[in-house]
Design a protein that fits this description.
This protein has a single domain, classed as Sandwich (Jelly Rolls), CATH 2.60.120.580. It is built from four helices and 20 strands. The strands form four sheets. It has a nine-stranded mixed beta sheet with strand order 1-4-16-6-14-17-18-20-19. It has a five-stranded mixed beta sheet with strand order 3-5-15-11-13, with no helix packed on it. A four-stranded antiparallel beta sheet has the order 7-8-9-10, with no helix packed on it. By secondary structure, the protein is an alpha+beta fold. The protein is about 15% helix and about 35% strand.
C-alpha cells in the first residue's frame, strides 16, 4: 500500500485552484494523509477574534495541495475517495459577516438595510462523544449537535492556464460546500491540465444544507484520501458516488441555473448508464431524484442532483472506482 503524508506549513497553503506548482507528485492508487487548515487559516480562535481583524483578506479558505497525479491528462478523470475526515482540534468556529451570507444584503444584492453584525461562535468539538457543542452568544442556550465531518472545498486546476479563487465553485470543483462530501464518498473531477493538480480544504465539523449564514462549523481536519485515475473518461461537472447514490453537481448564479446544470448532468448521465432515451431518463429522474443544496452564499451557488443507484440497476460507473477505493480505504484503516 502506497501511503503519502503531507502537512503543509502556513506559507505552503494555497488560495487558488490553478496558478501554483504541485506540492508533490503521486501515483494513481496512492493514499494521501493530509492536514487541512480551517477557512480562517487557524487565526480565529476565540469569540473575540473577529475575522476582519485577524485575517488577511482575500487570503481565506486555504487548501492543501495541489498534488500532481502521474499520468493524468486533459480528458481523464480523477477519482478521490474520502477514507476518513477527522477534526484535528477540540474546537471549531463559525461567524456572521456584514455583506456575506444568504440573509443579508451583498455587493450584488444591494439593500439600504444595515449589514449584519460580525459575530463569532466557538464550538467545543468532542470527537470521542461525536458532538459539536453550540453556545448561543446572546443567551444561555447550548446544544450538542452530531458531528458530520465533510470538506467544503475540493477541486482540480481549471483549464487554459486559469487560476480561480478557492472560494468559487465551478466545473473544476472548488468551494461547493455540500455536506455530501463526507467520508465514504468518492468525488469524480475532470482533468483539465497535466497532473490534474487536485487540492482539498475547508473542513466542516458539520454544516446545514445551503451554508445559509456563509460559514459552517469551520474546523481543521486530518483527512485521508485514496486517489485513482480513470483514463480516457471525461467528467463535465464534479460527480459524487457513495454506496447507494449517484450525484451530479452544478455551480452558477442564479440558483436555478445551478439546479439546471446538476439536473441536466444527472439526466444525461442516467441515460448513458441505462441506455434510456433522454426523455425517458428525464421522466425517471424527475420521480426518484433529490436536490440537496450545496451553498447559497458563495460567488457561485451549488446544487446537487441525487438518485439511488438501485433505481438505475446499480450501474458500475467509472470502471467501479468507488468500490475499489472504498475497499482500499477499509484495508488502510484496518492496518493503521
Amino acid at each position: 500500500m502506497n501511503v503519502v503524508s503531507y502537512r503543509p506549513a502556513l506559507e505552503e497553503l494555497s488560495y487558488t485552484f490553478g496558478g501554483r506548482p504541485a506540492v508533490g507528485r503521486i501515483q494513481p492508487g496512492t493514499i494521501v494523509e493530509m492536514y487541512t487548515e480551517d477557512c480562517f487559516g487557524g487565526r480565529v480562535r476565540s469569540v473575540d477574534d473577529l475575522p476582519s481583524s485577524v485575517c488577511d483578506f482575500p487570503y481565506l479558505n486555504p487548501v492543501t495541495g495541489p498534488f500532481h497525479v502521474e499520468g493524468a491528462e486533459p480528458g481523464d478523470t480523477l477519482a478521490l475517495h474520502f477514507v476518513s475526515i477527522e477534526p484535528a482540534r477540540d474546537w471549531a468556529v463559525s461567524a456572521t459577516f456584514p455583506h456575506f451570507g444568504a440573509l443579508t444584503g451583498t455587493h450584488t444584492t444591494a439593500m439600504l438595510t444595515p449589514p449584519l453584525d460580525e459575530v463569532v461562535w466557538r464550538y467545543d468539538i468532542d470527537v470521542e462523544k461525536g458532538v459539536a457543542r453550540y453556545h448561543a452568544r446572546r443567551g444561555d442556550f447550548t446544544m450538542e449537535l452530531p458531528l458530520d465531518p465533510m470538506h467544503g472545498t475540493v477541486g482540480v486546476a481549471p483549464g487554459a492556464s486559469e487560476a480561480r479563487m478557492t472560494i468559487t465553485p465551478d466545473a473544476h470543483g472548488g468551494n461547493m460546500d455540500t455536506p455530501e462530501l463526507r467520508a465514504g464518498v468518492t468525488v469524480y473531477l475532470g482533468v483539465n491540465v497535466e497532473g490534474g493538480l487536485f487540492a482539498v480544504g475547508d473542513g466542516h465539523a458539520r454544516q446545514g444544507h445551503g451554508e445559509v449564514c456563509g460559514t459552517a462549523v469551520e474546523a481543521a481536519m486530518n483527512t485521508v484520501v485514496a486517489v485513482e485515475l480513470i483514463k480516457g473518461v471525461s467528467t463535465p461537472w464534479p460527480r459524487l458516488e457513495d454506496d447507494e447514490h449517484l450525484m451530479s453537481t452544478g455551480s452558477a448564479r442564479p440558483l436555478e441555473d445551478a439546479f439546471r446544470i446538476s439536473q441536466h448532468d444527472l439526466v444525461t448521465w442516467a441515460a448513458d448508464l441505462t441506455g434510456l432515451d433522454t426523455l425517458d431518463a428525464y421522466q425517471l429522474v424527475s420521480q426518484i431524484g433529490e436536490a440537496p443544496v450545496g451553498n447559497v452564499c458563495d460567488t457561485n451557488y451549488t446544487m446537487l442532483a441525487k438518485v439511488p443507484k438501485a433505481y438505475l440497476g446499480r450501474p458500475d460507473v467509472y470502471e467501479s472506482a468507488h468500490g475499489r477505493l472504498r475497499d482500499l480505504g477499509r484495508r488502510y484503516l484496518a492496518e493503521r
